[in-house]
Protein backbone atom coordinates (compact mmCIF):
# COMPACT_ATOMS: atom_id res chain seq x y z
CA UNK A 1 0.00 0.00 0.00
CA UNK A 2 1.46 3.34 -1.09
CA UNK A 3 1.05 6.29 1.25
CA UNK A 4 1.12 9.83 -0.14
CA UNK A 5 4.05 11.62 1.50
CA UNK A 6 2.66 15.13 1.91
CA UNK A 7 3.18 15.69 5.62
CA UNK A 8 5.53 18.62 5.08
CA UNK A 9 2.87 20.55 3.20
CA UNK A 10 0.37 20.70 6.03
CA UNK A 11 2.51 22.32 8.70
CA UNK A 12 0.10 25.27 8.89
CA UNK A 13 -2.59 23.09 10.50
CA UNK A 14 -0.89 22.70 13.87
CA UNK A 15 -3.00 24.55 16.42
CA UNK A 16 -5.87 22.16 16.88
CA UNK A 17 -8.49 20.86 19.24
CA UNK A 18 -10.66 17.81 18.68
CA UNK A 19 -14.12 17.08 17.29
CA UNK A 20 -16.70 14.60 18.58
CA UNK A 21 -14.68 11.74 17.10
CA UNK A 22 -11.46 12.87 18.77
CA UNK A 23 -10.00 13.96 15.40
CA UNK A 24 -7.85 17.04 14.90
CA UNK A 25 -9.79 20.25 14.61
CA UNK A 26 -8.86 23.93 14.58
CA UNK A 27 -11.06 27.00 14.32
CA UNK A 28 -13.73 27.88 11.78
CA UNK A 29 -12.51 27.12 8.26
CA UNK A 30 -15.57 28.28 6.29
CA UNK A 31 -18.18 30.77 7.38
CA UNK A 32 -21.32 31.12 5.24
CA UNK A 33 -23.57 33.97 6.37
CA UNK A 34 -27.01 34.58 4.86
CA UNK A 35 -25.81 33.88 1.31
CA UNK A 36 -28.24 34.50 -1.54
CA UNK A 37 -27.75 33.81 -5.24
CA UNK A 38 -30.21 33.89 -8.11
CA UNK A 39 -29.99 33.49 -11.86
CA UNK A 40 -32.22 34.89 -14.58
CA UNK A 41 -32.74 37.56 -17.20
CA UNK A 42 -34.88 40.69 -17.48
CA UNK A 43 -38.47 40.49 -18.59
CA UNK A 44 -38.44 42.93 -21.47
CA UNK A 45 -36.96 42.60 -24.94
CA UNK A 46 -33.22 42.42 -25.27
CA UNK A 47 -31.13 43.19 -22.24
CA UNK A 48 -29.30 46.27 -23.59
CA UNK A 49 -31.89 47.71 -25.97
CA UNK A 50 -32.31 50.82 -23.83
CA UNK A 51 -28.75 51.97 -24.58
CA UNK A 52 -28.71 54.99 -26.95
CA UNK A 53 -26.39 53.38 -29.51
CA UNK A 54 -28.56 50.25 -29.70
CA UNK A 55 -31.65 52.10 -30.95
CA UNK A 56 -32.44 52.05 -34.69
CA UNK A 57 -33.82 54.85 -36.77
CA UNK A 58 -37.29 54.81 -38.28
CA UNK A 59 -35.99 53.29 -41.53
CA UNK A 60 -34.17 50.58 -39.59
CA UNK A 61 -30.79 51.29 -41.24
CA UNK A 62 -28.46 53.05 -38.84
CA UNK A 63 -28.50 53.47 -35.07
CA UNK A 64 -30.32 56.62 -34.11
CA UNK A 65 -28.22 59.35 -32.49
CA UNK A 66 -29.64 60.19 -29.13
CA UNK A 67 -28.95 62.32 -26.11
CA UNK A 68 -29.89 59.36 -23.90
CA UNK A 69 -33.30 60.82 -23.00
CA UNK A 70 -36.61 59.07 -23.30
CA UNK A 71 -39.35 60.39 -25.63
CA UNK A 72 -40.73 62.45 -22.77
CA UNK A 73 -37.39 64.09 -22.11
CA UNK A 74 -36.50 61.98 -19.11
CA UNK A 75 -33.72 59.43 -18.59
CA UNK A 76 -35.98 56.42 -19.03
CA UNK A 77 -34.46 53.55 -21.00
CA UNK A 78 -36.29 52.59 -24.17
CA UNK A 79 -37.37 49.16 -25.29
CA UNK A 80 -36.89 47.80 -28.80
CA UNK A 81 -40.02 49.58 -30.04
CA UNK A 82 -38.78 52.97 -28.84
CA UNK A 83 -41.22 53.12 -25.94
CA UNK A 84 -40.35 53.85 -22.35
CA UNK A 85 -39.60 50.68 -20.46
CA UNK A 86 -39.45 51.89 -16.88
CA UNK A 87 -42.88 51.07 -15.51
CA UNK A 88 -44.02 48.74 -18.28
CA UNK A 89 -43.10 45.14 -18.90
CA UNK A 90 -43.28 43.52 -22.30
CA UNK A 91 -44.77 40.11 -22.84
CA UNK A 92 -43.71 37.59 -20.24
CA UNK A 93 -42.40 38.06 -16.77
CA UNK A 94 -38.86 38.25 -15.48
CA UNK A 95 -37.59 34.70 -15.16
CA UNK A 96 -35.32 34.23 -12.16
CA UNK A 97 -34.26 31.12 -10.33
CA UNK A 98 -33.15 31.32 -6.72
CA UNK A 99 -30.29 28.83 -6.43
CA UNK A 100 -29.10 29.63 -2.89
CA UNK A 101 -31.69 31.17 -0.59
CA UNK A 102 -30.19 32.86 2.48
CA UNK A 103 -27.99 29.94 3.55
CA UNK A 104 -25.88 30.11 6.73
CA UNK A 105 -23.53 27.58 8.36
CA UNK A 106 -19.94 27.17 9.59
CA UNK A 107 -17.45 24.43 8.74
CA UNK A 108 -14.76 23.68 11.32
CA UNK A 109 -11.14 23.09 10.39
CA UNK A 110 -10.48 19.40 9.80
CA UNK A 111 -14.17 18.63 9.37
CA UNK A 112 -15.70 16.72 6.48
CA UNK A 113 -18.93 18.62 5.92
CA UNK A 114 -21.52 17.01 3.65
CA UNK A 115 -24.17 18.74 1.57
CA UNK A 116 -27.04 16.61 0.30
CA UNK A 117 -29.98 17.63 -1.83
CA UNK A 118 -32.01 16.81 -4.92
CA UNK A 119 -30.81 17.90 -8.35
CA UNK A 120 -31.21 21.64 -8.62
CA UNK A 121 -31.21 22.25 -4.87
CA UNK A 122 -28.22 24.62 -5.00
CA UNK A 123 -25.34 22.34 -3.95
CA UNK A 124 -23.05 22.98 -6.90
CA UNK A 125 -23.86 26.70 -6.90
CA UNK A 126 -22.79 26.85 -3.27
CA UNK A 127 -19.49 25.15 -4.17
CA UNK A 128 -18.88 27.66 -6.97
CA UNK A 129 -19.58 30.55 -4.62
CA UNK A 130 -17.02 29.22 -2.13
CA UNK A 131 -14.44 28.72 -4.87
CA UNK A 132 -14.81 32.33 -6.16
CA UNK A 133 -16.23 31.16 -9.51
CA UNK A 134 -19.48 32.98 -8.74
CA UNK A 135 -20.24 36.11 -6.74
CA UNK A 136 -23.07 36.06 -4.18
CA UNK A 137 -25.91 38.55 -4.66
CA UNK A 138 -26.07 39.00 -0.89
CA UNK A 139 -24.43 37.62 2.23
CA UNK A 140 -20.81 36.76 2.95
CA UNK A 141 -18.51 33.74 2.64
CA UNK A 142 -15.15 33.59 4.40
CA UNK A 143 -12.50 30.89 3.98
CA UNK A 144 -9.99 30.86 6.83
CA UNK A 145 -10.87 34.49 7.51
CA UNK A 146 -10.60 35.64 3.88
CA UNK A 147 -13.65 37.07 2.12
CA UNK A 148 -14.28 35.31 -1.21
CA UNK A 149 -15.38 38.59 -2.83
CA UNK A 150 -12.81 40.99 -1.38
CA UNK A 151 -9.84 38.60 -1.26
CA UNK A 152 -10.39 36.05 -4.05
CA UNK A 153 -6.68 35.46 -4.70
CA UNK A 154 -6.01 34.66 -1.05
CA UNK A 155 -8.94 32.22 -1.04
CA UNK A 156 -7.77 30.54 -4.24
CA UNK A 157 -4.36 29.83 -2.68
CA UNK A 158 -6.05 27.90 0.12
CA UNK A 159 -8.58 25.81 -1.80
CA UNK A 160 -9.00 23.37 -4.63
CA UNK A 161 -12.07 21.86 -6.22
CA UNK A 162 -13.02 18.54 -7.76
CA UNK A 163 -16.14 18.64 -9.89
CA UNK A 164 -18.03 16.05 -11.83
CA UNK A 165 -17.38 17.97 -15.06
CA UNK A 166 -13.59 18.25 -14.68
CA UNK A 167 -11.84 19.12 -17.95
CA UNK A 168 -8.39 18.25 -19.29
CA UNK A 169 -6.24 18.47 -22.38
CA UNK A 170 -7.51 15.20 -23.80
CA UNK A 171 -4.56 14.67 -26.17
CA UNK A 172 -2.14 14.83 -23.24
CA UNK A 173 -1.48 12.06 -20.73
CA UNK A 174 -2.44 12.23 -17.03
CA UNK A 175 1.22 12.89 -16.17
CA UNK A 176 1.44 15.75 -18.67
CA UNK A 177 -1.84 17.24 -17.49
CA UNK A 178 -0.79 17.09 -13.85
CA UNK A 179 2.69 18.52 -14.49
CA UNK A 180 1.06 21.36 -16.41
CA UNK A 181 -1.26 21.99 -13.46
CA UNK A 182 1.69 21.86 -11.06
CA UNK A 183 3.45 24.58 -13.03
CA UNK A 184 0.36 26.77 -12.68
CA UNK A 185 0.49 26.15 -8.92
CA UNK A 186 4.17 27.17 -8.91
CA UNK A 187 5.40 23.75 -7.79
CA UNK A 188 8.90 22.33 -8.38
CA UNK A 189 9.03 20.02 -11.39
CA UNK A 190 11.18 17.15 -10.08
CA UNK A 191 9.50 16.91 -6.71
CA UNK A 192 6.09 17.16 -8.36
CA UNK A 193 6.74 14.26 -10.75
CA UNK A 194 7.47 11.96 -7.83
CA UNK A 195 4.39 13.16 -5.99
CA UNK A 196 2.20 12.74 -9.10
CA UNK A 197 3.30 9.12 -9.43
CA UNK A 198 2.56 8.46 -5.75
CA UNK A 199 -0.92 9.98 -5.95
CA UNK A 200 -1.85 8.20 -9.18
CA UNK A 201 -0.66 4.86 -7.82
CA UNK A 202 -2.54 5.48 -4.59
CA UNK A 203 -5.69 5.93 -6.66
CA UNK A 204 -4.87 2.62 -8.43
CA UNK A 205 -4.33 4.18 -11.82
CA UNK A 206 -2.58 1.61 -13.99
CA UNK A 207 1.04 2.28 -14.96
CA UNK A 208 0.31 2.14 -18.67
CA UNK A 209 -2.52 4.65 -18.29
CA UNK A 210 -0.30 7.33 -16.79
CA UNK A 211 1.45 7.90 -20.13
CA UNK A 212 -1.52 7.37 -22.48
CA UNK A 213 -3.72 10.22 -23.77
CA UNK A 214 -6.64 11.16 -21.53
CA UNK A 215 -9.08 10.60 -24.40
CA UNK A 216 -8.37 6.86 -24.16
CA UNK A 217 -9.43 6.71 -20.50
CA UNK A 218 -12.85 5.98 -19.10
CA UNK A 219 -14.82 8.69 -17.34
CA UNK A 220 -14.14 7.08 -13.99
CA UNK A 221 -10.38 7.04 -14.59
CA UNK A 222 -10.47 10.67 -15.68
CA UNK A 223 -12.23 11.49 -12.43
CA UNK A 224 -9.35 9.92 -10.52
CA UNK A 225 -6.94 12.20 -12.38
CA UNK A 226 -9.13 15.18 -11.43
CA UNK A 227 -8.84 14.19 -7.77
CA UNK A 228 -5.07 13.79 -8.12
CA UNK A 229 -4.83 17.27 -9.66
CA UNK A 230 -6.72 18.77 -6.73
CA UNK A 231 -4.34 17.12 -4.25
CA UNK A 232 -1.27 18.59 -5.97
CA UNK A 233 -1.73 22.05 -4.47
CA UNK A 234 -2.20 20.58 -0.97
CA UNK A 235 -5.30 22.66 -0.24
CA UNK A 236 -6.37 23.50 3.29
CA UNK A 237 -9.96 23.39 2.01
CA UNK A 238 -10.91 20.75 -0.55
CA UNK A 239 -14.27 21.22 -2.28
CA UNK A 240 -15.56 17.88 -3.55
CA UNK A 241 -18.54 18.26 -5.86
CA UNK A 242 -19.80 14.69 -6.41
CA UNK A 243 -16.22 13.35 -6.69
CA UNK A 244 -17.11 9.66 -6.97
CA UNK A 245 -19.75 10.02 -9.68
CA UNK A 246 -19.00 7.57 -12.49
CA UNK A 247 -16.60 5.45 -10.46
CA UNK A 248 -16.96 1.69 -10.03
CA UNK A 249 -17.40 0.43 -6.43
CA UNK A 250 -13.72 -0.37 -5.95
CA UNK A 251 -12.53 2.98 -7.29
CA UNK A 252 -15.13 4.73 -5.15
CA UNK A 253 -13.75 3.07 -2.02
CA UNK A 254 -10.19 4.01 -2.98
CA UNK A 255 -11.19 7.67 -3.30
CA UNK A 256 -13.05 7.53 0.01
CA UNK A 257 -9.94 6.07 1.66
CA UNK A 258 -7.84 8.97 0.36
CA UNK A 259 -10.42 11.42 1.72
CA UNK A 260 -10.20 9.84 5.18
CA UNK A 261 -6.39 9.92 5.09
CA UNK A 262 -6.38 13.61 4.22
CA UNK A 263 -8.57 14.33 7.23
CA UNK A 264 -6.86 12.04 9.72
CA UNK A 265 -3.22 12.66 8.74
CA UNK A 266 -3.29 16.26 7.53
CA UNK A 267 -6.38 17.82 9.14
CA UNK A 268 -7.65 18.89 5.71
CA UNK A 269 -11.07 20.51 5.72
CA UNK A 270 -13.45 19.13 3.10
CA UNK A 271 -16.89 20.05 1.85
CA UNK A 272 -18.51 17.14 0.05
CA UNK A 273 -21.62 17.07 -2.12
CA UNK A 274 -22.91 13.65 -3.11
CA UNK A 275 -26.01 11.63 -3.96
CA UNK A 276 -24.51 8.55 -2.30
CA UNK A 277 -26.14 8.39 1.15
CA UNK A 278 -23.79 5.67 2.37
CA UNK A 279 -20.78 7.72 1.33
CA UNK A 280 -22.14 10.77 3.14
CA UNK A 281 -22.90 8.86 6.32
CA UNK A 282 -19.52 7.11 6.31
CA UNK A 283 -17.33 10.14 5.62
CA UNK A 284 -19.08 13.21 7.01
CA UNK A 285 -18.90 14.64 10.52
CA UNK A 286 -21.97 16.76 9.83
CA UNK A 287 -24.43 16.98 6.97
CA UNK A 288 -26.58 19.82 5.66
CA UNK A 289 -29.62 18.83 3.60
CA UNK A 290 -30.67 21.42 1.01
CA UNK A 291 -33.95 21.72 -0.84
CA UNK A 292 -34.98 24.51 -3.20
CA UNK A 293 -31.94 26.57 -2.24
CA UNK A 294 -32.50 26.39 1.52
CA UNK A 295 -30.84 24.35 4.25
CA UNK A 296 -33.72 22.33 5.72
CA UNK A 297 -31.62 20.38 8.26
CA UNK A 298 -28.05 20.39 9.58
CA UNK A 299 -26.64 17.92 12.11
CA UNK A 300 -24.54 14.80 12.54
CA UNK A 301 -25.68 11.70 10.61
CA UNK A 302 -26.87 10.04 13.83
CA UNK A 303 -28.90 13.07 14.91
CA UNK A 304 -30.42 13.41 11.46
CA UNK A 305 -31.58 9.79 11.54
CA UNK A 306 -33.16 10.45 14.95
CA UNK A 307 -35.41 13.08 13.33
CA UNK A 308 -37.38 10.38 11.51
CA UNK A 309 -39.44 7.78 13.32
CA UNK A 310 -38.75 4.09 12.66
CA UNK A 311 -40.93 2.35 10.11
CA UNK A 312 -42.21 -1.20 10.73
CA UNK A 313 -39.51 -1.76 13.31
CA UNK A 314 -36.67 -0.78 10.96
CA UNK A 315 -34.27 1.95 12.00
CA UNK A 316 -34.44 4.97 9.67
CA UNK A 317 -31.59 5.46 7.23
CA UNK A 318 -30.11 8.69 5.93
CA UNK A 319 -32.05 8.08 2.73
CA UNK A 320 -35.29 8.01 4.76
CA UNK A 321 -34.31 11.36 6.29
CA UNK A 322 -33.50 12.77 2.86
CA UNK A 323 -36.85 11.74 1.39
CA UNK A 324 -38.74 12.98 4.42
CA UNK A 325 -37.11 16.41 4.57
CA UNK A 326 -37.16 17.12 0.85
CA UNK A 327 -40.87 16.24 0.61
CA UNK A 328 -40.43 13.34 -1.75
CA UNK A 329 -41.94 10.37 0.02
CA UNK A 330 -42.72 7.33 -2.07
CA UNK A 331 -46.12 5.73 -2.04
CA UNK A 332 -46.97 2.28 -3.32
CA UNK A 333 -50.33 1.46 -4.83
CA UNK A 334 -51.22 -2.08 -5.73
CA UNK A 335 -52.83 -2.38 -9.14
CA UNK A 336 -53.10 -6.05 -9.97
CA UNK A 337 -49.53 -7.36 -10.17
CA UNK A 338 -48.00 -3.88 -10.61
CA UNK A 339 -46.69 -1.41 -8.02
CA UNK A 340 -46.82 2.26 -8.91
CA UNK A 341 -44.35 4.60 -7.25
CA UNK A 342 -44.78 8.32 -7.49
CA UNK A 343 -43.73 11.47 -5.68
CA UNK A 344 -46.11 12.74 -3.06
Describe the structure in your own words.
28% of the residues lie in helices and 24% in strands. The protein is of the alpha/beta class and 344 residues long. The longest helix has 18 residues, at 249-266. The radius of gyration is 25 Å and the shape is globular.
Order of helices and strands: EEEEEHEEHEHHHHEHEHEEHHEE
Average pLDDT metric: 77
Q: So how many helices?
A: 10
Are there runs of 5+ residues with pLDDT below 50, and where?
Answer: 1-25, 68-73, 75-91, 329-344
From the N-terminal CA to the C-terminal CA, the straight-line distance is 48 Å
Beta content comes to 15-25%
Main β-sheet: number of strands, strand sense, barrel status?
6 strands, mixed
Q: What is the number of strand segments?
A: 14
* Global Rg: 25 Å
Set out the fold topology:
Elements (H helix, E strand, L loop, with lengths): L16 E2 L5 E2 L2 E14 L53 E14 L3 E5 L6 H8 L7 E6 L2 E2 L4 H7 E4 L11 H11 L4 H14 L4 H4 L8 H14 L4 E5 L7 H18 L2 E5 L3 H7 L2 E6 L2 E6 L1 H5 L12 H8 L4 E6 L2 E6 L1
Parallel strand pairs: 5-10, 5-11, 8-9, 9-10
Antiparallel strand pairs: 1-2, 3-4, 3-6, 6-7, 11-12, 13-14
Helix pairs in contact: 3-4, 3-6, 4-6
List keywords for this structure.
six-stranded mixed beta sheet, 10 helices, disordered N terminus
Amino acid sequence: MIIINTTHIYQENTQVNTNHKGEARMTTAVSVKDVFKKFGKPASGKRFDWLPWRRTSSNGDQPEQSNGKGPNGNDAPLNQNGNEAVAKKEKGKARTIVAVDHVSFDVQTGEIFGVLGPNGSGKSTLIRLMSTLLLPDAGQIEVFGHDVVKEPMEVQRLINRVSVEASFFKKLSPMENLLYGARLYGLDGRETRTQVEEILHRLSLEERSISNPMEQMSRGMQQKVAIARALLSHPRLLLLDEPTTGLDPRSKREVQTVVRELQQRHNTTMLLTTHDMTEAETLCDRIAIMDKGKVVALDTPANLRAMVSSNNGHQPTLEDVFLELTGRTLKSEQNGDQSLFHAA
